[in-house]
Design brief:
This is PRG3 protein. This protein is α+β, with helices and mostly antiparallel strands. Helices cover 24% and strands 26% of the residues.
């Protein structure tokens, strides 16, 4: 009898049907309007492999960073996962229309950067990592195997 009663109540909307607990979004720093969810994936992937993983598993993308607060938040998140190698974030630097430009893979505006000295590289197309040690971004060859941060 109880299973039937619970099913009836769930269908009427008085008791929630079985759903996973909602994930809590990270805070929304100044300059950003939409709360996003983030996760650090410790599996080592190339940049393109990480991007595919974020799309396939989370229906998301590699993280884009639009403020110092978000940068610090993602750095701390990676530290809590005990990540040793700096993870990929969703920025690429390449030559476009004869000039070197950095851009976010999710097509969001390039309105914040936190490059380490001498970065980004302007030699070949490179992908970007977020240092868990100092929070600075560094250019890396996109075929390297690294952990990564997904946003969704």
């Amino acid at each position: 009898m109880w299973p039937c009663l619970l099913l009836a109540l769930a269908l009427l909307g008085t008791v929630p049907a079985i759903h996973p607990a909602p994930r809590q979004p990270q805070g929304v720093p100044a300059g950003e309007t939409t709360p996003l969810y983030y996760t650090v994936v410790k599996k080592l992937r190339t940049y393109s492999g990480a991007q595919r993983y974020c799309q396939d598993v989370y229906r998301g993308r590699l993280a884009s960073v639009h403020s110092a607060a978000r940068n610090q938040e993602l750095r701390k998140l990676a530290q809590t996962y005990n990540v040793i190698i700096s993870p990929w974030i969703g920025a690429v630097t390449s030559r476009r229309a004869g000039q070197w430009k950095s851009y976010w893979e999710d097509s969001s505006p390039w309105n914040y950067a936190n490059w380490a000295p001498t970065h980004p590289f302007h030699i070949v197309t490179t992908c970007t990592t977020l240092s868990i040690r100092d929070g600075l971004w560094r250019s890396r060859f996109c075929f390297q195997l690294r952990p990564f941060i997904c946003q969704y």
